[in-house]
Amino acid sequence: MILLQITAGAAQVATSTTSYVEKITNMAIDYAPKIIGAFLFYVVGSWLIKKVMGILKGLMARNNYDPSLQSFLISLVKVVLLILLLSTVLGIMGVPTTMFGGLLAGAAIGIGAAMNGSLGNLAGGVMMLIFKPFKVGDMIEAQGVVGVVSEQGVFNTTVLTAENKTVFVPNGPLSTGIITNYTTHGNLRVDLSMAIDASTSIDDARSVAIEAMLKHPKVISSPTPEVSVLKVADAMVTLAIRPYCVQADYWDVYFGVQELVKKEWDEKGIAGPKQEKVVINKQG
Asked: For 94-231, where are the alpha helices, taking DSSP H only?
């Protein structure tokens, strides 16, 4: 009796083992092609991504893209392509990708809401790096700041002002606002205003001022410095004094020309405006 029970138990174990082996064999037969196909697709896809990255790097280098923009775009494209590759591989293996896509979309929405301002600055930085309204070394005026661009990043642009203040301007509002580039044409016009007495000859004041401006070592002769009447009022004539210089010499010319013109006017007898006082005597 005992022998019969042992034999029956052994037969049952053998049957269960055979069943498990068959199941594993069937699963291997069913999934082996998918696993092999997914592996081959991953290998080929990875090779293609490397090729695409190489082509993209070459195109950016030939078009003189900013190094910061090159690094950012290459990383972004690579991440997107890798996500697409992995989701396709999972789909080939039979793994449902709808849940994966939903989780990814939810995460993207959450991150986007948390980084709303940062993403705006990122988008603005990318657009400016592509269209290049200015470059490092240019003098610009934007967002109430005037200075030389010392660094152009993806999120912020660093500007060095004439007072040696370092200002970090967010790229979002910078890209959507008005940007005045003082360096684009190679030289700048320095706008000054100085007044003379109304009885003084305008022609004499003009010729002396132009002669004084050309004595400044950093004032360029072409275009020729200009002197124009800006305003006649209050017993004086206000003249627009306009020398030209390269961008790097702007502030030297701005302050230096005023001093030179004033000294030349004093030497040549060009009188400045006189204050008039009106005295009223009341008699009781």
From this structure: 98-114, 116-131, 171-176, 202-215
